[in-house]
Hints:
By secondary structure, this protein is mainly β.
Amino acid sequence: MTARLLSLALLCSLLCPVSLLSQSPGTITGTVLDPARAPLPRATVQLLAAGGAELARTRTDAQGRFRFEGLAPASYTLTIELVGFDTFTASVAPGAALEAVLAVRPVRERVLVTATRTAAPSAQVGASTTVLTGEELSRGVMLGDLLRPVPGAAVVQSGAPGAFASLFVRGGESDHNKVLLDGIVLNEPGGAYFFSNLTAENLERVEVVRGPQSALFGSDAVASVVQLFTRRGQAETSRPRFSFSLEGGNHATGLGRAAVSGEAGRFDYSLAAARLSTENQAPNSGFRNTTLSGNFGLALREATSLRVILRGELGQAGTPGQTAFGRPDLDAFFRRGDADFGVTLRDQTTPFWDQRLTYGFAQSRQVSRNLLADPPFIPNFGDRVAECFDFFTGTFGPCLFFDFTSDFLNLTRRHHVSYQSDWRAGAAGSSAGQHFFTFAFEWDRELGLLGERLFPGPAVEAQRDNLGYVFQHQALWGRLYLTNGVRVEDNASFGTAVVPRSSLAYFLRAGGESLGATKLKFNFGLGIKEPTLTESFSPSPFFLGNPTLAPERTRSFDFGVEQRFWSDRAKLEVNWFDNRFRDLIGFEITSFVPFTGSFFNLGRTKAKGTEVVLELAPGKGLHGRGSYTFLDSEVTESGTVFDPVFAAGSRLLRRPKHSGAVQVFWDWKRLTVVSTAVFVGRRTDSDFSLLGLTANPGYTKWDLGASYRSPHRVTYFATVENLLNQEYMEALGFPALKLTFRAGARVDF
């Protein structure tokens, strides 16, 4: 009912005739854009008199627009500044409508949405963020692989492409990351999201915000938020733009892509399709995946727009199991189909008031099937053999592992409604500063059906309705940018929780010729994660749901410094963070005869560390980025007794103490070369096969790619992954691919 009333209020506001950009003789208006013609919000615009005295100052809005009114007939000077861009200066007179394109500095800043739920330059944000651009995304296939160089992040895949891929950020669990697609929530109820078959197809950019963001996005935003933005159509010509590509490689790999995009009057569109097929290197590890993506926009009037997002991923991967420890399973497979839909209505109701109404639907259907029982085997690795206790002899001996047939279905659906209102007050040049107020209301209906279909039994069938209320205040005073927010989460499982967040960015220096801007930043926040549907609702006595579970929680502090130098050809960023996780949900046996068990809030962990990021642009066409992460993690209270690696005092599973990445991008005439090296240090792990392995050695993965743009609209490209041909396992028992290569061509017209 509340969502319906808000929808009616927004629709009524759209009927109010408002002319935002009407021009009068005493008015100067304009739009500030980057070289790609994307709007630049919050750029500082100064209006100077002929003698150089400042008459007025303002900041651009979310569409990059500004406005000065009540001006006398005269000649004025306009200056526009934004960190990461060259200063723009122009002579203007009342009645002018200016379009200013700001040239980027060698090391540029990005415009973010995820860090504050409003468009803001990264220089004005205190949170630690990483943006993967469309150009970077176009050089890869699977999004999980492209996230590996992100500071503070560890991607762990259980084998070759198509296998389960999990993301760990700053010591958080793999289900502590909120994943969004243009505002559509992709997580399963309870936070789980695997990057197994998510491709980078038709994505304009990906924003990663590290640290708890539950104050903005509610449950599951405990360690990070990863938001994907679909590419939009642009009017490069009067005709649609088409793109087709084909590539192939070893392991019988083939990849075909097709896309069309454009703009026709008030309508813009971008559609893409891709098909990937590979056999990988282990028996029964082949992977097939199809991606369909669409983004359609319609400008209803000058200040109102409607946008529809569609995306589907259908993939199937063989699951041979831990082939490093024994024979592969030759018939088991995992099939996953995701369908996502979203529609957003935006309106700039007045020059200082924006509204947005979004409906999103996400469905994930996952089937794990193994219909044939393979022969039993004894896991072994090197000189180790799996051993278990024999109750008849009272001794340890070789342990025989059996294959169990199964046909498990995991079907989850989520309906999401969000209303957001943004209001701007104050002026950039006033002593009171400029203020941005955000109110948001969100409703989620989570539905799930989980059960074993081969052996009928009690399935988990559940529904959960959640409400969230968000308030955020952003204050901009000169060089100080302060953000405070709070969310009240009303969850059907755990009740009401209040999660605050504070973020600060302050410029000690505004910049200079050799030594550039110096930014200090600080963040504090709380995070929460709801239980999974199984943990709350399972009817099985073997793993009985617990309706009284509290949410998993985190408390996080982080602070850092960003320093630009070498005439903005370099930027150094150092972040320190301290995260404490509590009330982690674990399984506990409640009775052995008969066997019963349930879920309880049992665990506590902590993780603190440092991220160092260096970005260099020494010359035209040459760009480099390097990062190093130190993570000191520990289990402070164990949530399980089944494996010693989870005991109190142990380091957190599969989260390396040392990790880093180096990326080099070189553009020379029509040639582009990209080199990416990822280093992952030794980390705690478990073989889960009674072999006694509790550590996983470190590894280095080096990928090299090149492309050549011919004069005939054809681009030739080639990629070599794991160039050093290293043998390693991201998860014990699951060998990663050795050297692989792909090559192909793309036609654009």
